Every structure is written in structure tokens, then in C-alpha cells.
Amino acid sequence: MRLATALALLAAPALAQEDYTDAPCGGDFRAFLDGVAGEAVAAGQDPATVEAFLAPLRLDESVLAADRRQGVFQRDFIDFSRRLISQNRLDTGRAMAERHDAIFDRIEAEYGVPRGVLLAFWAFETDYGQVQGDFNTANALATLAHDCRRPGLFRPQLIAAAELFAQGGMDHQTTGAWAGEIGMVQMLPADILESGIDGDGDGVVSLKTSVADALLSGGHMLANLGWRAGEPWLVEVTVPADLDWMATGLNHPRTVADWQALGVAGRAGPLPRTDLPARVLLPMGRNGPAFLAYPNFDVYFEWNQSLVYVTTAAYFATRLEGAPVYAAGTPAPGLSGDEMMELQRRLEARGHDVGGVDGILGEKTREAVQAEQLRLGLPADAWPTRELLGAL
């Protein structure tokens, strides 16, 4: 399986709704759908249309299988980014930017989202529209809403899908990613209802077939998620060897000017917007690549929850905007998936919340690693090594 296809199948969305852990789930599927119907009708939807949407739905075991497979995100940043960012993807992205220049100009004028940002999502989500997923969207959403792992995330999307069905925005043949995303930039039903744009003026929002509709809708969604026009999102930096590593990480913001005073510098030129807050992000520790993450970087987590995906997408956007290849450095070897899970178990045993034992180095695991590195007298750069695993 091509990695692009794997990403389309595996990348879980970061849904805007609050995660209600007590949302109704499980049990008899038809009874479950009756409950969804009642909630949709109570929200103002037409009973007959809701019934017409829900009646044919079926559980899809392949969706649950895809939801459980997350191994691709166990890769480290250098490996992951090198696999996703090919010369072909760069060349195609630049060609797409030129071909659809007027669309990107409109997006930048109306929503303040740079073309590189949308091009990166377009590339990673569907390979510029070529790999949009072949899961039945309505069945996928019903399956994930019924499943008791994350019902509070997917139940609102199933109800939104009923409304999108009523508006003619999807039908029972609509296909997409396993988690219910539709179209070239993979948007969920609630996001389509809120942010969908008829970019080509044909009276229909067609995210699967219209480049203008897909890109403008994606730009509108990013703006609605809090994208700040005219501000950077990620800038590669160099860091001094004596930096206080405990000050690094996404939970430790300082102004860019303060970071400069500590010796942090732009690798490819002066750092932009020294007045803004930013965080030093070391995806593979103090000896690997280094970045400053600005407030716009946080918007990426509203699109996807994987730290390695988010960092790679944000970096690829800077490449498409003209940034050079990052300096890989000489980071210490990382842990295997099994070793990472063992580390997470040991961190949990010490009282840390790592966000679950999944073998994936997310921000919660990084924070726990940093705390234990500090306790053990190791450089607290949040990069887990076999030395740390042995010490725990």
C-alpha cells in the first residue's frame, strides 16, 4: 500500500465537537439509529428525510479495522516526512499553484490562508485529489458513531450527514475516507455544512470533483478554525547547545524576541514577527531538526491530531512557499513501536497521562518524557531514547 493511500485510510480527524464520553453507543444497531433519528428530529430536521437517510445504513467492519490501524504514525519525523515529501509532490504542488493561481489568490484575499498550507493538505490527504477513499461515507459515520471508542466525536457527524443528505450534499453512494471525510481535502459533514463554498459558481458544493469548491471550502474551514492572516505557522531555526531544554515544547511559549535573546535564530534568514508568541519544537530532540511553532501551528491540530503528521504538513507547506530542506542533524535513535508502548506503560505507572498506550509519540507522551528526563538529570528535550527507557 502506498503511504499516501495509508494516510487517507488511517489519519483520524480532529473533530471540533466536544468528546462526550457518555454519548449513546453500542447495542442493537437499529435501536441505536432510532436514537440518532430522534436527536436529529429534535434538532429541527425533517423526520421523513432523516428516516430515508438512516434506513439503509449498515455497520462496516472494515471501518473499525482501519480505525485500529495507526502504525504509520509511529514513525519519527525524519522518516515520516521523507516518505511523504517527494520531489514529485513538490513539483506537482508548484504546478498546481500555478494552474489554479486565481483560486489561491482568492483564498488568500478572502481567508488569509497561504497557498502552501492548502497545497500541503491537498497533497497529503488525497494526493491532489487522486486518492479520495472508497469507504461508504454514511456507513462509516454510522459505524464509528455506534462504536463505543469515540461516539461523542462521530455521533454529531452522523447527524450532520443527515442534514447534508437533506440538502443534496451527499447520498448513499458518497464515498471517502474511513472516518467519514469527503473530497479532495477531506472534510467532515459538519465542516461542509459550516464551511462549504460553491467556488465555481455552479450552485453546488462539489468537494470531490471541483478544485475551486474543495480549496475554497478548505480555506474557509481553516479561517473558521482560527487561522490568523498574515502570520507564519512554522519556521526552521537553529538552537544553542546550552538552551534550557525544559523551556522547549508546545506548552512553553515565549515571544520570538525572547527566543532570539536566548540564541534561537532563523536557519534561512531573520525570524518573522518577533512580537508573536512561539514555541521551540524539537520533533527528534536537541540534536535533530528544530522549529519555531507560531499560533497558526495550533490550527493544524484542528485538522488532524497526529503530531508527526501536523509537523510534517506544516513543514511541507513552508517548502511549497520556498523554504529549504531542513537540517536533519544527528538525533539519537528513536524507539520502536513496541519500545514506545513499553515506555508509555512505564510513564503511566509513574502517574503520567500519555494519552493512551498506542506506540505513538504524541504531545502528552512528550510532556511526560520531558518531566522524567528532568527528574533523572537527562537533557529534557522530550525525545525518548533507549537510555531513558532503561532508566525507567
TrEMBL record:
Residues 29-317 form the Transglycosylase SLT domain. Pfam families: PG_binding_1, SLT_2. The keyword Kinase does not apply. One of its GO terms (molecular function) is peptidoglycan lytic transglycosylase activity. Residues 336-392 form the Peptidoglycan binding-like domain. The keyword Protease does not apply. SUPFAM superfamilies: Lysozyme-like, PGBD-like. Residues 1-16 form the signal peptide. GO terms for biological process: peptidoglycan catabolic process. It comes from the Bacteria. NCBIfam families: MltB_2 (TIGR02283). This is Lytic murein transglycosylase. The lineage of its organism: Bacteria, Pseudomonadati, Pseudomonadota, Alphaproteobacteria, Rhodobacterales.
